[in-house]
Write a structure and sequence with these properties.
Layout: E1 7-18, E2 21-32, E3 36-40, H1 47-54, E4 62-67, E5 70-71, H2 77-81, E6 84-87, H3 99-105, H4 119-132, H5 147-160, E7 165-169, H6 177-194, E8 197-201, H7 205-211, E9 214-219, E10 222-228, H8 229-232, H9 235-242, E11 248-250, E12 257-259
Parallel strand pairs: 3-8, 3-9, 6-7, 7-8
Antiparallel strand pairs: 1-2, 1-4, 4-5, 9-10, 11-12
Helix pairs in contact: 3-5, 4-5, 5-6
Length: about 260
């Protein structure tokens, strides 16, 4: 595979199994610096597993995953944290910390266990809270926030980490339309204004096409599509991946092809 100079994530012929079950099958793709990539596909396609393999939460597998030109297993934990940050899928659990304390944890690659945070650490925390619009919650405990507010806190902690790549697993799960829109707007701003590379797992096909530049679709652990978002919205492509037909329409504001709502 030809590697371009600005590739930040490179995956070559990667497979991953749990016991006798192969979850990922010969996955290959490249993500360039500053890209916004959405990973989509049916339930059980391997989307979250792939994200966890990139983030080193899951170890092992066959093939190669490299970040910034180095295999991910070659990094120390702190070195890797300078490259990649990860926001997991919301699970309803609340860490017993204030917002400021939690966001400060994102600075762990820069902190010494024997020294207090430096002014640069606190500045990074404050900036991350301001960018995500959570400064007013800084002294509140996470358990007192709404789901949308907590999701912004998790993204703020990832921003304070100042990594080159932000990985997100279903960042808008369980959110109402307003908070969902807020999160997508925030991610677009982070990608556009800060140049952070974003790789996000989502079940929302329309949002994936409207927010990202590249779509990677998995089916049964294998790559079923990888290319520009606008090319993904093709009746045959969608039917092959999801094994159902869709009605397509033009978005009235953005002009992109989207899936029309269906009445049961």
């Amino acid at each position: 595979m030809e590697i371009m100079d600005n590739v930040i994530i490179d995956i070559e012929s990667f497979s991953f199994s749990v016991g006798d079950k192969e979850i990922l099958k010969d996955v290959s793709m490249s993500v360039c610096e500053g890209d916004y990539v959405s990973i989509v596909g049916p339930n059980g396609a391997g989307k979250t597993t792939l994200l966890k393999c990139i983030s080193r939460i899951l170890r092992g597998g066959r093939g190669r995953i490299a970040v910034a030109g180095r295999r991910i297993e070659e990094y120390s934990q702190k070195e890797f944290a300078l490259k990649v940050s990860y926001v997991p899928q919301a699970d309803g659990r609340h860490a017993p910390f204030t917002v400021r304390e939690f966001v400060l944890m994102g600075r762990y690659p820069y902190l010494s266990p024997f020294s207090p945070p430096r002014s640069s650490d606190m500045d990074a925390v404050q900036e991350a809270m301001e960018v995500t619009g959570i400064s007013e919650f800084s002294e509140r405990f996470l358990g007192t926030l709404s789901g949308g507010e907590r999701q912004k806190v998790y993204i703020a902690a990832a921003l304070a980490q100042e990594a080159q790549v932000l990985l997100l697993d279903e960042p808008t799960t369980f959110l109402d339309p307003k908070h969902e829109s807020d999160i997508y707007r925030l991610l677009a701003e982070i990608n556009r204004d800060r140049g952070v590379t974003i790789v996000s797992v989502t079940h929302d096909i329309n949002s994936a096409v409207l927010t990202s530049r590249i779509v990677l679709a998995l089916k049964n652990g294998a790559v079923a599509f990888c290319g520009p978002a606008e090319e993904f919205m093709d009746e045959e492509v969608l039917r092959n991946i999801y094994e159902k037909s869709f009605s397509l329409m033009q978005h009235p504001r953005y002009g992109r092809t989207i899936i029309a709502p269906e009445v049961p």
